[in-house]
Specification:
The chain is an alpha/beta fold. It has 18 helices and 14 strands. The strands form two sheets. It has an eight-stranded mixed sheet with strand order 3-2-1-4-5-6-7-8, with helices on both faces. Helix 15 links the parallel strand 10 and strand 11. It is globular and about 70 Å long.
Length: about 425
């Protein structure tokens, strides 16, 4: 298949590269010339484990190319994926679909023959209808089928998720696209990955419903963690006790500082706005959004409480800035709100993250970015673990204590055992622990 991917950001690049690895001929297109120039030199615009090697392999094999030229990239394609950003719109929280609609208009002007146009971007219900209208208006003679094919990629494990998916959701209202999309995903279909064909609007809602449910699950266990602290229970045992129930499942039941990243915050907000527009509000999602927003600053206050309510002129070592490990993504990271809360109370911050510091510098000012965890820990009054990178799981605690003014460890990811930390002379503060 000849596949064109419009948008070479996180979703577009990972999807395009994996399609090329399946044996398809793929062109990844982006308007950002500097990004395309970098990709042609083998420099990745994002950090994703294994991505650079799979790009290099498929470029060398001639199956993967990069371009800024939409016209030539689209004209001979069998399938054109739209994988551009859909950020929250300023002012009202709705998904900003301007990039999707602009891509649809360009595709319409240059597609030839029967072309399947696929929205890979996360979009509200009804977007496919509008994409189809835009294409037909821009080019009444265009022979197209518009398909919804949402992505379910976890940052840090995206390649594995793409190649071994729980399911592949394909929403279509034109049955001609069924055979084309089956061929696109043929390697996965042959490996018995479930292909779920639905109506287009149903597919669009599946993506939002999935992310909304997972966000609720995270928020639920965070609230239970707070209750555990009040009643003297252990949230890790509670999580295990309920997660062993097959109806509930263990995933996304890890208490922490709240969810962030490129998907959950904007997708829950877009789902809530869509529901309000259709006079069918999703109160659970609305409450989830509110709780999660408040939780991040509450984690900053938790650090302040661990230092007896006063952090003025005290140095706090923050370990981990990205919203999760194995990514450089800072979007809506809990670290932002935690650090701002500490700064507002007069603390000075030294921070380290293995991959996220360049992106963090664009969002968090007035802190010291250092070269490693122990550089952050030196002369600190407390260590705060915000992101559970593996290299933070086995800190040399005796060394750390010897470097600190005050041996306090605030573990917002519960990656340490309280008794082990206390044995080394630290005051330990976790989430939802006795």
């Amino acid at each position: 298949m000849r596949i064109t991917m419009i948008g070479s950001g996180y979703v577009g690049l990972v999807s395009g590269v994996c399609f090329a690895d399946f044996g398809h001929d793929v062109i990844c297109v982006d308007k950002d010339k500097s990004k395309i120039d970098a990709l042609e030199k083998g420099v990745m615009p994002i950090y994703e484990p294994g991505l650079d090697q799979i790009v290099a392999d498929n470029v060398k094999a001639g199956r993967l190319t990069f371009s800024t030229d939409v016209a030539n990239s689209v004209k001979d394609a069998d399938v054109v994926f739209i994988a551009v950003g859909t950020p929250s719109r300023r002012g009202d929280g709705h998904a900003d679909l301007s990039y999707v609609y602009a891509a649809a208009k360009e595709i319409a002007q240059h597609c030839t023959g029967f072309t399947v146009v696929v929205t890979k971007s996360t979009v509200p219900v009804g977007t496919g209808d509008e994409v189809e209208r835009i294409v037909k208006e821009a080019n009444p003679g265009a022979d197209i089928a518009v398909v919804s094919n949402p992505e379910f990629l976890r940052e840090g494990a995206a390649i594995e998720d793409f190649k071994r998916p729980d399911r592949i959701v394909i929403g279509l209202d034109d049955d001609r696209a069924r055979g084309v999309m089956t061929e696109v995903y043929r390697p996965l279909y042959l490996n018995q990955a479930p292909l779920l064909f639905t109506a287009r609007r149903t597919s669009e809602l599946i993506k939002y419903a999935a992310n909304g449910f997972l966000a609720m699950k995270i928020t639920f266990i965070n609230e239970i963690a707070d209750l555990c602290e009040k009643v003297g229970a252990n949230v890790q045992d509670v999580s295990r006790g309920i997660g062993l129930d097959g109806r509930i499942g263990a995933k996304f039941l890890h208490a922490g500082p709240g969810y962030g990243g490129s998907c959950f915050p904007k997708d829950t907000l877009a789902l809530a706005k869509t529901a309000q527009d259709h006079e069918s509000p999703v109160r659970l999602i609305e409450t989830t959004i509110s709780i999660n927003d408040n939780r991040k600053r509450a984690m900053g206050r938790k650090v302040i409480a661990a230092l007896d309510g006063d952090v003025r002129s005290k140095k706090i070592a923050v370990l981990g800035l990205t919203f999760k490990p194995n990514t450089d993504d800072m979007r809506d990271s809990p670290a932002i709100a935690v650090i701002q809360t500490l700064q507002d109370s007069g603390a000075t911050i030294a921070a380290y993250d293995p991959e996220g510091m360049e992106n963090a510098k664009k969002l968090i000012e007035g802190i010291e970015y250092v070269a490693g965890p122990y550089e952050a820990i030196a002369d600190a009054d407390a260590i705060v673990i915000v992101t559970e990178w593996n290299q933070f799981r086995a800190l040399d605690l005796p060394r750390a204590k010897g470097m600190m003014k005050n041996p306090v460890l605030v573990d917002l990811r519960n990656i340490y055992r309280p008794a082990e930390v206390a044995k080394h002379g630290f005051a330990y503060h976790g989430i939802g622990l006795q």
